Every structure is written in C-alpha cells, then in structure tokens.
Hints:
Number of strands: 0
Order of helices and strands: HHHHHHH
Helix content: over 70%
Radius of gyration: 20 Å
Structural class: mainly alpha
CATH class: Mainly Alpha
Number of domains: 1
Amino acid sequence: MANEHITGAYDDELRDLVSRIAEMGGLAEGLVSEAVTALTRIDIARAQNVIYQDHRLDEMQRQLEERAISVIARRQPVAKDLREIIAAMRVSADLERVGDLAKNIAKRVIAIDGQFHSKRLAFGVEHISEITLEQLKAVLDAYTSQDLDAAHAVRNRDDEIDSMYTSLFRELLTYMMEDPRNITFCTHLLFCAKNIERIGDHATNIAENIHFMITGQQLQEDRPKHDESSYIPAGSDQVR
C-alpha cells in the first residue's frame, strides 16, 4: 500500500484484502474458462464441477466482506485507506457475480446434453470469451498494482466485447432461420454469449472502482456501449 502506517498489523490487514481479491479473481477466471470449455465440448462432468466450485467463490466473498467490515470497525480508516477497503468489497461482489455467470453457462451445458448441437456454432462464444477473459485478467492486474492507466484501458475496450456480442447475436439468428434444428442449441448459445458479455461489464465495473480507489472520484461520463442486439428485428435483412 502507498500509505505508511504506524501499526504494521494494519498494513498486513490491507494487504490481506488485496491477496483475497487476487485469489477470488484467479478462481473466477478459472470458472469462466472451464464453463466455456465445457460448452464447446459438451462436457457434463466439467460443467458440474463449475457449478460446485461456484459455492467456494461465494464463501470467499462472504469471508472477505466480514474481514473488511472488521477492519473498518477496528481501525476506522479514512481517505485512501477507506477507499481501498470499500473497493475490495465492491470488487469481491463483482467477482462473485462473475462466478454466478460462469455457473449459468455450465447449467446451459447440462440442458444441451442429448440434444442436437454443433461445435462449429460454439466457436463464436469461445472467441468472445477469450477477449472477456483478457479483460478480466488485465483489470485484476490493474487492481493489484493500482495501475490507473491499465484500468482505463479495460474500461475503454468494453465496447469491443459489446460489438462482438451483437455480431454473434446476428450470426446465431441466421443459423436458426436456416435450419430449425439449430434453434434450441443456438438459443442456449445466445444466453451463454449474453452471460459472457455481462462478465465483460463486471470487468468494467472493477476498472471504475480502481479509478475511485486511486483518485477518490467517481467517473462521470457513461461508459461506451455497443450492444445493438435489442435493435435487431427478427426476420429482418439486418440479420443476414
């Protein structure tokens, strides 16, 4: 931490919160990666493990919040110290939601089992997940190092994920229109893709909390958004 404290134990408590976020972040990244792998391979055992591991992430978030509240009560931090603790609580909540979204993808894998599916159609979801995981890793690194420029770079790249989601939305609609057998599988893929796009939003939330933690100010301007899927009429020429 940048501030020096008379009490060494206080520094240790603040560092412990950062360490806990790093551990949660690693688990959240792993769950997303495993869920997408389970989707592309229709691997039920892998999907079930993602669902099981999500409980661990929930417990880690609960413990971090309890720890943070205890530090606030005992140390009565102010200024940047207080912002670091608040940011840790907010980031842990975002990571818990990332785990929930990975679990949602895993549940879709189980629902798909035994139905008609095409690995080729899942490639688009896999690609958007790769970019999203890059964003998540970059923002967690920015949090650990308190790198404001890196956090802003993550926030500014969110529109790339939105654009990819819109493109994938159009592509999957086209597949459904061309072959009714694709409808069920593509519908599941659309939900999975939306979950991944939401994971990108949580990475952006973390970036904004890094800005608050370092500067003490909330970002005023709206983040760039390019998810146009809600404006695509079914059956229109825009789908093709």
